[in-house]
Amino acid sequence: MQVLKQQILTREQKESIGLLQIGTFLEYFDLMLYVHMAVLLNELFFPETDPLTTRLIAALSFSSVFILRPFGAIIFGYIGDNFGRKLTVIITTTLMAVSCIIMYILPTYNDIGITASYIMILCRAMQGMSSMGEVIGAEIYLTETIKRPTIFPVVGFITVSLTLGGVAALAIASLATTEGFNWRYAFLIGTIIAMVGGLARTRLRETPDFVNAKKEIQSVFEKTGVDIKLLDKSPIYNEKANKITAIAYFLLECSAPTCFFLIYAYSANILKEVHDYTPGQIIHQNFIVTVIEFFTILLITFLSFRIYPLKILKVKLIIFACFIFILPFIFQYSTSPVGIMLAQLGIVFFGVNVLPAGPIFYSHFPIFKRFTYTGFAYALSRAIMHLTTSFGFIFLFEYLGHYGILVIMIPILIGFSFGLNHFEKLDKQNI
Question: Residue 382: which CATH number?
Fold first, then answer.
């Protein structure tokens, strides 16, 4: 199969990119508000206990956003593959707005007790489900609309937008913890911008690939005089992804949540417990790291237009495989917060994820199962890895100290290498 090329974007494509970027920015601003204000909000919505229990509660709060993602993937995957990509991204934005308004008005633990904790966790789970459909929906939408090599930086800019949403969330979190800005107003702002994003996305048109595939199947049924209701028996409609391909993509997606946890949650615990950092100081340092991460992603996005994305990932994998063995030493022997920041930036620069090769991975899944397979793999990887890291690192640290990082990271890097080699072989067959 010959891969079609595209160098210049049409006006309609530019409009779609803009709408999806705005929506992704708004959605991830809402999602990351709690993540970056967790050091403050956990004290308001959960009971005070001993240090170990406090860490476990914080881990539950952090991971709750990812636990129900696989179920969300099944739901949104079905909607996306059967009713279209456009509807999916509108629904996810609406769900994010609902969860934000609930958190805006939710009483604290001191007001209504443990009920506040339960509702907060449910809201976080709702946000996790909607954000899953958001990022996969936006990237698949563009993958099916734009051709290579332009698609690589275009999809990369979706990641740029969500990172920028995280930067904005950190800025608001910093104001809430250092300048006395009411944290509830942050979620009110999140509600408003999610509603604006949802309304903006009603202007989107369905993706050409999805529409054309539907029309092609319908045309065949009409020409043959066969009832369209028999579509469920069509081999094209029911084509399934190769199992090895699905596993390979899952293994690739396992890397990003682990790196994210090390950058923000794991490092935050060290800053708090070892260096006596206040919530405001932690947020300030994370803000600096996130800004640098934004420019790093921006650079990789631009490079993807000239350099084959899988080559970029190979180079990052080799460097990160070396860096990961140094990381425990940095965490163990850093005498100042500057050392922790250097560790964070090392992961930001070299940590492995699917950026900027997402369109390559998506293209090797059947179009009528693409959203379901990739969405479920994405969600399952986040659920498993955030649970593993949130709770696993707590107990690994008790026995192995910071060297426990290697117990989780080495298998992840091996899996990433397998997935990368698998898709490289598949893609060579299509070029």
Answer: 1.20.1250.20
